[in-house]
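Running this now, will post back.
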Amino acid sequence: MNPTTRDEHLSRIAEQGYTVIENAIEPELIDELDSTLEELERELAVEPAGNAFEGTRTLRVYNLLARNRVFESIPVHPSILPVVEGVLDGGCLISSLSSIKLLPDETEQPFHADDQLMSIPRPHPATVCNSMWALTDFTKTNGATRIVPGSHLNDAPPEYGPSCESIAAEMPRGSVLVWNGSLWHAGGANRSDKPRTGIAMNYCAGFIRQQENQQLGIPLATVKRFEPRLQELCGFGIYNGLIGHIDKQSPAELMLAGTASGIVWDG
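Update: finished.
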């Protein structure tokens, strides 16, 4: 992504709370992700969670980095990560990586903000930046994410439950929706006869606790084969030379035989 395009996306996120990066992902990668998810859903016998938030007609697979190597390309994708780093900073972390497949007849999800459980005054600088990868077309009919433009600047999160005046973030297969974690949004209702499939690639600032525990949830043998940037995104680095160290060493240095990075006190 060139700097001009990146700045345009960042400007839209600052003003409206979201942006859509159309046709960002290679078709062959989308095909592989889609087929791998279908295999995982069968292997894990995935069923809807049955609650209002996760859906009564929605299939979700969590902790994808521990499931298959194809998912390793998602957090570091060069069409998306530079925008996320612009919203947060280069010390951002993977908060969670999961799939969301809305089956026909799924109803609208309750509106929420992804940083809603953080008890800090609003509005505030971004602590969460999330993205939705479209493995199918996202349309009003099949449950495209509903968003409330500009709501990331509100002084409170939405009340849980009631619907809001919103728009559908429609986008073609291979596109990615990126938004500030304070944005009010919800999964749409799938009124079509086919599933709507997406991957939720969620990030948080380096000083925020991750939604999924990447350090315990992914086997160390798996993490050792990750490229260094992916290891950092999983939390095996230290933020701003301090946060997350173990006896003045980064987790990567101590547990993965990584390169010594030093901490801020040494400087």
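The chain has a mean pLDDT of 95. More later if anyone needs it.
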